[in-house]
Amino acid sequence: MHVDHRRGIHSSATVRCRSPSTLATITHSAAVCRMESKYQALGRPGEGTVGVVCVGDVIEPQANDSVLRGHGTLLRSGSLVASRCGRVQRWNQLVLVEPLAGAYAAAVGHVVVGRIVQVEATRWLVDIHATTLAVLPLSTAGGAVRKAAEGAVDMRSILVEGDLIAAEVQAVRSDGQVQLHVRDAVASKLPPGTVVDIPAALVRPQRKHVHHWAATGIKAVFGCNGAIWIGVDGGSSAAVPGIEQVQAVVQAATAVRALAGVGQAITPAAVERMVP
Amino acid sequence: MAAPLISQGEVEWITAGVSYNTRNDGRKREDFRHLKVQLGMLAQATGSARVQLGETDVIVGVKAEIGVPDADRPDCGRIVFGVECSPVASPAFRGRGGDELSSELARALERSMYPGPSGRGGGIDLSVLSIVSGKTCWVLHVDALLLNIGGNLHDAVSAAAQAALADAKVPKVQVVQGEDPSDEPDYEVDDDPSEAMRLDASGMPICITVSLIGGHCVVDLTVQEELCSAAAMQVAVDASGGVCGITKRRQKGIEASLAMEMIEVAQRAAAQLHTALSSSLAEQQGQQQMAVG
Question: Which residue ranges does the record assign to the RRP4 S1 domain (chain A) (predicted)?
């Protein structure tokens, strides 16, 4: 596994202290070990803000009043223990474990890549690999399409079922429904390209979610929902992609799959290191 | 089954990639994904195999039962094919959702593997399954379970069926005639596995689906690529390269000259797949014998 020592990420040989509780011995199966070694490149508890724990791992040895118990944790004989595999998140006093696998949990501000699965009168339903379909209302889809509200424009002339879009999570309602936002519905539609699906936990919110390779004229959108879109740069889908572009995209897609296969966080910088 | 969705951009992309001989996962047009075969997955079955072809995951079990032969072929055994779609593979398979796909796959399997009305052309010599002519024979139930759908189901199911039949050991049966010749004879089924008969599946054909994307022949399509292809031809090819059966699939027609090219592509791909499958089978059967010995 590639180890970046500058960031303080430890190698897989690191031996960890584990709570001697029975819970840990029973649940710490081989599968958990595999998962742990796969994702340990993401970091360790106590080494900065993120850390990966397994079921039974002690997060806080002395869980006094300064710690609020969040999702995925439980109190055992005075210490805070993880009850599921995942990444430790600390929000002031609140400590919770965010799962590494499973459906994507949307958060406001995330850039996501989704697919339109249903067209309704004033909104589109979008598959973003979450537990429910996300909603892209017409009202948040930019001024160019406002006419559609009056029935002057056909919704399907803007986005049809199957179309891929890059959008931003605008709100997550209390019932879990995700509302998306795009500046321009027409421009949000992604040109010819391909999508690589990876675990959502490997893509963190970052400053830039779009990366351009100017030399070959391709770009990639790193969706926080684990959908990485790679394809031609430029809005128009008129031109047929060239052989250099196809080869560069396949190279980048292979790099993303390889990085995800060893549990490395997927960032534009990481992919660019493999595909200059 | 609700068809998966694809955008126009992705269709253009895949079509362009195929024309440059570079597919999205880096394969060339005539490359297969990695084929992984595991024998003896099911302890209760006469023979079983799990085949993973990329994302596609199929388990096939063979169960031998004593039954009655067909009236028009009294000296032959029977093979019954069945396919079941697991709801694990897709939520669309809940209830009766997978019936259409499973009956299509079962029919395709039967067409490519079962002998014609003359009793010839099948990959397996059915006469070895006969016990008493016209009265009893072995009936092999070949049942496939689709665990994950990652494209190219037909080829994966046919490879798995071949592997499972090669893994099958049909118990030895002795017919014991009663004292009075008019009595019904008794059967003694020998449950000693070392006495059991292995079926010779080496002559069985393997299905290769050759699809057309933008006028080019492509094998082993992923789900996304299958959505871009309008015509496909399923060619059953045996180990010696002979074509045993051809079925045309999907909506569009195929030009005759292109059809010949597709058959040649299928023969090339089948030769590779047969070699990979037989070496994998030989290796695993050798390991099983070592374990027994």
Answer: 104-170
